[in-house]
Amino acid sequence: MLPWKDEVLYDFQLHTPRLLLTDRLVLADQVTRLVDFTDTLLVLHTGKGCLTEITGENLVILSFQRQRLVCSGRIFSVAFSGKAMGKEGSEKDEG
Asked: Was domain 15-82 assigned CATH 2.60.40.2000?
């Protein structure tokens, strides 16, 4: 098995939020709630107070099931806010 596949499989087994994106596609795992959505803004809640904000144009949700969201469109930026896990595995507040 390729080394990077072990890392990807490990992340999915831990049920941690994961975001894979290109300039035209977003795949977000462990999405607990869709907070806001327009054709230029997508805001996702990924648990434990974490929000992911994606801006772009012509955004379209292709699917949203089993905590996985797939969105297409032209992606301009991604921003994260809320709590994050520290290196020791404890939560810390990130502004």
From this structure: yes
Q: How far is it, in rounded angstroms, from Cα 54 to Cα 5?
A: 26
Model confidence at 41: pLDDT above 60: yes
In whole angstroms, give the CA distance from residue 50 to residue 17. Answer: 9
Structural domain boundaries in the chain: 15-82
Closest of 70, 95, 72 to residue 84, by C-alpha: 95
Tens of pLDDT, residues 70-92: 999 999 999 999 875 444 444 44
**This prediction's pTM:** 0.73
Q: Is 62 left (phi over 0), alpha (psi -120 to 50) or beta?
A: alpha
